[in-house]
Specification:
The protein has about 325 residues and is of the alpha/beta class. It contains twelve helices and twelve strands. The strands form three sheets. A seven-stranded parallel β-sheet has the order 3-2-1-4-5-6-10, with helices on both faces. Bound molecules: nicotinamide-adenine-dinucleotide. Nicotinamide-adenine-dinucleotide binds near residues 39 and 95. Nicotinamide-adenine-dinucleotide binds near residues 35, 78 and 120.
């Protein structure tokens, strides 16, 4: 299979490409990425089967040229930092919504190609007692989540109206090597290694289900291979932890005393209190389950960051 991966230099992309090469044995992978600050070109696997094209998903001519040469598209390209979307959502609307629309129009015109659209559990808003499932109504509460939700709606509309063969995956909070140090785990490691406390929003009792990025990549490949067109799948972690739990575990590993590990700051506007996900459908229909336990994955991530100061300094 010849695959186009948009946003393939990002955190999820480099892990997904590694597994597509090693586990899935794809014939060729074209990476389309415009090298935003989160991109990690140094992490892109070196292989004759991988070709990097610097450019934007907003460039319809370039997208048409690249889609014409592939059999499947994995769409990861996005603006991804919630805090930045609160300051200014313009780029989020352009990249996440218009960028997806450009890709969809191209796929409609060329036909006969599968799309795996990667979304987030944040489109469902705030969880209460029940975990999110694929039928949970969309209630995005921050601009990033709203732009991802809009993109999902477009993808779903194209499957119904234009018969596009597209699968949507909602990933929960991911962590692992090569994540840009603006997201909770790498930014906390970075601050503690610099001798600064982690900045924790509000009470720090917001909770998320955490999933190691290599497990997410395996889930995305399972959806690419076995997902039913028009369906969506939650690719979620099985470990729910509060922000304070996560920061505390990192501080323990770095031997930072609890009293020096945390600085509380005003809560983020629209901060969702809880995300929690059910993996039942992905387990049943894709045969996928997370394999990495949180302590092992976190230890690997922290050790890797200590060994790779060039990534965060
Ligand atoms: N990391 C997570 O915890 C998580 C959770 C749920 C869903 N997701 C989704 O997974 C996808 C990948 O996330 P990530 O964590 O790898 O993000 P990331 O920010 O690390 O990577 C995004 C990549 O997209 C590229 N990009 C941005 N705008 C582009 C454009 N116009 N054209 C081409 N490339 C562009 C960037 O340069 C970057 O390499 C996103 O769609 C995100 O919404 C991520």
């Amino acid at each position: 299979m010849r695959v186009l991966v948009t946003g393939g230099l990002g955190f999820v992309g480099v892990h997904l490409i590694d597994q597509l090469l090693r586990v899935r044995h794809v014939t060729s992978i074209t990476v389309l990425d415009n090298c935003r600050h989160t991109a990690a070109p140094q992490a892109l696997p070196t292989s004759q089967r991988v070709r990097f094209v610097q450019g934007s998903v907003l460039d319809a001519e370039l997208v048409t040229h690249l889609v014409a040469d592939c059999e499947a598209v994995v769409h990861l390209a996005a603006e991804t930092f919630v805090d930045a979307s609160i300051v200014d959502d313009e780029l989020f609307v352009e990249t996440n919504i218009t960028g997806t629309a450009v890709l969809l129009r191209t796929l409609r015109t060329l036909g006969a190609r599968r799309l795996l659209h990667v979304s987030t559990d944040e489109v469902f808003g705030e969880a209460t007692n029940e975990p999110f499932t694929e039928s949970t109504p969309y209630r995005p509460r921050n601009p990033y989540a709203a732009t991802k939700a809009a993109a999902d709606h477009l993808v779903r509309a194209y499957t119904v109206t234009h018969g596009l063969d597209a699968v949507i995956c909602h990933c929960s909070n991911l962590y692992g090597r090569w994540q840009y140090p603006e997201k909770l785990i790498p930014v906390t490691v970075t601050r503690l290694l610099r001798g600064e406390p982690a900045r924790v929003y509000g009470t720090g009792r917001q909770s998320r289900t955490w999933l190691h990025v290599t497990d997410a990549a395996a889930g995305l490949i399972a959806a690419l291979d076995h997902g039913v067109g028009g369906e969506s799948y939650l690719i979620g972690g099985d470990r729910e932890l509060t922000t304070l739990d996560v920061v505390g575990r990192i501080a323990d590993q770095l031997e930072v005393p609890a009293s020096e590990a945390v600085s509380f700051v005003d809560d983020r506007p629209g901060h969702d209190y809880r995300y929690t996900t059910s993996n039942d459908k992905a387990r049943r229909e894709l045969g996928w389950l997370p394999a990495t336990d949180f302590e092992t994955g976190l230890k690997d991530t922290v050790d890797w960051m200590i060994d790779h100061p060039g990534w965060w300094k």
